[in-house]
Amino acid sequence: MALLKEVRPLHIIPPQLMQPLKPQVAVRLVINQIELVERLLKELGTDNSGFTIVNVMKFAAEALEHSASEVRDTAVRIIFNMYRRHGSAILHYLPPDDANIRKNVLYKSLFDGFAKIDGRPTEAEQRAHKKAVAEEAEKRKKEEIRALQEQLAALREIQAEVQAEKGKDVENSKHSKTDQGTKVPASQSEIPFEQSTVADYLDNLCIFCGERNKMFTDEGLDIHYWKHCPMLRRCEHCKQVVEIASLTEHRLTECDKKDSFGKCQRCSEAIAKEDLQEHLKTKNCNAAKPEKIANHCPLCHENFQPGEEPWKVHLMGRDGCKMNPRRMQTLQRTQQLQQAKPGTLATFRPGPTGIKGRSPTTTSRIPAPRAGLNKTPSRTLNRR
User: Fold this and answer.
1) Is 37 exposed, middle or buried (0-12, 13-18, 19+ CB in 10 A)?
2) Which of 295, 289, 294, 271 is nearest to 281 (CA)?
3) Apex CA 99: angle with CA 95 and CA 105, to 5°?
4) Which of 38, 124, 158, 262 has the fewest CB atoms lying closer than 10 Å?
């Protein structure tokens, strides 16, 4: 009857259906009443129909407290219909969405329904997402720890081999002097002593930046390589520690993401393939010079004097590379040591580095797993 064109403009049926639900009325009659409200609301809406946000929401909120589950379920559907029509305007007639209210299963399902209508994740979905993110972060952390442990093991092997190589050089030099008729031939006891002296010299020494520090035990050197050495850098794509001087070669030949890089023939740097065409087209890069004429920094893109020591000056000096974040840390530590009293723990002296004799195909001195975390890291060395 309410849908008849003669009756509809009178708006007399909806207000009658909005009468408060009486507890003494039979449940069957209450169910019929609220189902009529649901049906007419879908047909007539709330625009000049006798249904308003106020009377419908007050009626539905009261129905949510009814003892009959059929009445409560119908009231939830009515509220969802109103939320689709009017959005957050209806929330004023409902309790606030908080943890205490969500203990009520009915209101929890109601607020989760609002989230689904809006396209937002429900509370359960948010918890599941946070749990998945936390598990993924923990997994990545464990993988990085495993990768770091393997890289640190490789660094220890490099340090041991450097010391052994230096010892061999001293031993050969001693034998050479003996063969040429030196005044006092080297005794069998002197050679181990010389080797021990060389080993002592290399103890607590970073072979890349030349810093000597009593804290540079095996673990201390590992931390120094990983976080502080200004000559090294963590590749942002594979997390491998590499020399900055060989960063371009690493990206093009060693990195797990090497297939995503291409080489610019103008600046000789590794450019992401997706940006390479635009890079080549603009020609704004700083052209690299031949290696015998100048070194080219992959961080600040500047050219500077060729050779090994200029790399250290550029990456560690006061007026050096502005794009090397570890440079200022090193300068600050050096300044603190200069101002400290005698007997400080650390000194900076020229020391062996891993960039001597580098050619365009030289690989990194800091190895890392190339094909998975469980594989043995590469141990390619540059002979100094």
Assistant:
1) buried
2) 271
3) 70
4) 124
